[in-house]
Protein: dTDP-4-dehydrorhamnose 3,5-epimerase
Organism: Citrifermentans bremense
Amino acid sequence: MNGITSFTKGRIHDVVLRPLGKFLDERGWLCELFRSDELDQQVLPAMAYISMTQPGITRGPHEHVDQTDYFCFMGPSNFKVYLWDMRPDSPSCGVRQIIYAGIDAPMAMIVPPGVVHAYRNVGTEHGIVFNAPNRLYAGDGKREPVDEVRYEEVAGSPYLID
């Protein structure tokens, strides 16, 4: 865990936040999640998935050694997203950042490797999250170790979810 046991509040270097816009018409709405001409080549997605999180449930905290996550929080619920910068060479090492995203604040979020992250559905509906990471889960053909360091059940973890 890099020896850091407490964090200061602030913005985490290299975490990118981009409001998502919905284009409405008589049929419903459309939302562009990402465009290759707006992303650095290093974070271009290698795969995509969606997940559903029930109200009050938290996913994480965990981090990746090599993978960058590209999350989109659009609703139908709201999420409280927790980030902790553990990168020793980062100007924001030791910083914790909390972001609210979802139906009330549609948001795309790029989370680089070494940033521990978690999110909790703080709404009353099932929440949908889209992720398009730049690495394949378990590598090509799912034959490699999963790039994930999990902290959910680590005793004395400094990654506190309130």
Notes: The chain has a mean pLDDT of 95. The first strand starts at residue 8 and ends at 9. The chain has one domain: 8-140. Residues 8-140 form a domain with the Jelly Rolls fold (CATH 2.60.120.10).
